Hints:
Elements: E1 9-11, E2 17-19, H1 26-36, H2 40-46, H3 52-64, H4 66-86, H5 91-98
Antiparallel strand pairs: 1-2
Amino acid sequence: MTTIAYPHIEIDSNGTPYITGTRTKVEEVVLDQLAHSWDALEIHRQHPHLSLAEIHSALAYYYDHQEEFDAMIEDGLRHFLALQASMPPSPVHLKLKAMGLLP
């Protein structure tokens, strides 16, 4: 099996891919693309500390590992929704509901 090197990507001791020399996870770049439909130029505008080469490398890494990333993102979403469901409504939410501004 061939090992592919990804310039600008390093894997930490937990197996999490980061953009080299930053604290930006590959997952963060991917979520910007998936959630906002941003292309590499828009991601660069939103994160000017990242070069276009770093962004493209992160996206290439994602597409080469898409199945595992998508599963990780789905697990994170399920975890978030479970936490959200377990929390009581906020006082602001209750007040807006009482005012008839929320269903």
